[in-house]
Amino acid sequence: MKAIRRHLGWKLFFSYMIIIVVGVVSLAVVAEFITPSAFERHMANMAIMGGNMGGMTADLTDSFQRAVNEILLVAATLAISTAVIVSTFVTRRIVKPVREMQEASRHIADGHYEERVQISGEDELAELGQSFNQMAHNLAQTETRRRQLIGDVAHELRTPLGSIKSVMEGLQDGVLAAEPATFQSVEREVNRLQRLVHDLEALSKAEAGQIILEPELVSPASFIDTAVERLMPQFNGKGVELHTGLPDRLPEVWVDQERMTQVMLNLLGNALQHTLAEGQVLVSAWDNSDNVTITVEDTGTGIPEESLPHVFERFYRVDKSRSRTGGGSGIGLTISRHIVEAHGGRLSAASPGPGKGSTFSNILPIDTRSSGITL
To answer: Mean of the pLDDT values across residues 317-323?
Structure first.
């Protein structure tokens, strides 16, 4: 019994047998109790029409009963034999893909995420196989992102930790003087580490869909002007012109103003980082009837076509040879994309090519409350 409980094939086989047996028993019971009375009734009608048949009725009834039982026995034997053959074939067809998925799941559990199952047909088992392969694909992508994240975080931590270690060794060896400038250098690296940890925490919440939003109806000009005002000193310090081109009236949008200010700060900071002195950055916005489009256009280094699909990936750098000593953590755009999508909007990037600047577009629905999106 334990083997039967543990094997789907045996369960299917015995289910077929039970159906056959129940059918045969039902037919035998009906034949046993219904056949005599029915036969006698018909014989009585024949006697009325053809005269008294006397003792022949009992003999005919007995013979007919034995004939029915013989027919039932042959039919039951044939049915059981056929059921054995058919159930064996069907069971193998059903159990084989299940066993393949079982074996593949074991390989995936052991870390072999490239494992897939063969799919044939269009029935429920084929759909199950497709779902299984999709799950395996998602697991493989998750594992790849996990490994990439560990490598990226290790790389991002290596530079400030290495700098702090060098300063500490210099202080211990007496090579560096214990003066404010030395400690300020250490403080800058510590601040970088703190920003990285904060951004990683924000990214983790964003990718898990746990962004807490407090939406309200606000004018896009409010969070645009706030971000421009905060970063204007940095633009002036680098010699990059920052302009805004906003219409007199823009439809209000249902957004978290603080979060949307964060998005604008990230977009403007990214534009500033990749725009050389004497360059320009223009912030524009307009109404598209059902949404508001906000763009940040710069005259900076631009983005190659092959890099455009990846600019919102965490820690992605268009120029692999550049360091981030003067930039952010490398995940600001990733966080911004999640924030915009949490509002039901879309964040995209475009560029004519290297050295020709780039444009980031933030498209927000005018009122997400009517779109069924829960914030």
So the answer is: 55
